[in-house]
Design goal:
Shape: globular
Mean pLDDT: 98
Largest sheet: 5 strands, parallel
Low-confidence stretches: none
Order of helices and strands: EHHEHEHEEH
Number of helices: 5
Radius of gyration: 14 Å
Helix content: 25-40%
Bound molecules: 1,3,4-trihydroxy-5-OXO-cyclohexanecarboxylic acid
Number of strands: 5
Distance between the termini: 10 Å
Strand content: 15-25%
Length: about 140
C-alpha cells in the first residue's frame, strides 16, 4: 500500500506558529512521526507540503494511478478551496481529512470543509495522532 500525506499552507511553520493552538513540535517532527507510523504499519508513504493551492492540486492529480490512499490536511485551503475538492473528486482516490485542532470549536469560517466533502474519514482535533489514525484506517482497510 502506498499512502500520500499532503499538508497545506503554514504547516511548515509548526513549532513557530501559534504554539498555544498547534503545539511546540516542528514540521520536521511531524514528518518523522508520519514516517515512523508508516514503518510501524508497514506501508509506503510520501509526505508532501506546499503553501500554494495550485501545487496541491497538481500533487493530487499526479497521484492518479500511483497512490492507494491520500491523507490530507489542507490547512487554510480546507475552508476555501473548491479546486482541491474537485481534484480529490477527479482522481477518486480514497481520502481522509486530518486537522490538528478541533476546527468545529474555532471561528465560524473554519466550520466549512470543502476538501472534507471528498473524504471518507475525518480525524479532527487529535494533534499528530490524527495522522496516525488516518494511516491506520487505510492500512486496516
Ligand atoms: C488546520 C486548521 C485550519 O483551520 C488552519 O487554517 C490550519 C491548520 C489544523 O490542522 O488544525 O492551518 O488545518
Amino acid at each position: 500500500m502506498k499512502l500520500l500525506v499532503i499538508n497545506g499552507p503554514n504547516l511548515n511553520m509548526l513549532g513557530i506558529r501559534e504554539k498555544h493552538l498547534y503545539g511546540a513540535k516542528t514540521y520536521e517532527d511531524l514528518k518523522a512521526f508520519i514516517q515512523e507510523t508508516a514503518d510501524r504499519l508497514q506501508v509506503e508513504v510520501e509526505i508532501f507540503q506546499s503553501n500554494h493551492e495550485g501545487v496541491l492540486v497538481d500533487k493530487i492529480q499526479e497521484a492518479y494511478g500511483k497512490i492507494d490512499a491520500i491523507v490530507i490536511n489542507p490547512a487554510a485551503y480546507t475552508h476555501t478551496s473548491v479546486a482541491i475538492l474537485d481534484a480529490l473528486k477527479a482522481v477518486n482516490i480514497p481520502c481522509a481529512e486530518v486537522h490538528l485542532t478541533d476546527v468545529s470549536k474555532r471561528e465560524d469560517f473554519r466550520k466549512i470543509s470543502y476538501a472534507g466533502m471528498a473524504c471518507e474519514a475525518h480525524f479532527i482535533g487529535l494533534g499528530f495522532e490524527g495522522y496516525a489514525k488516518a494511516m491506520e484506517y487505510f492500512a486496516q482497510k
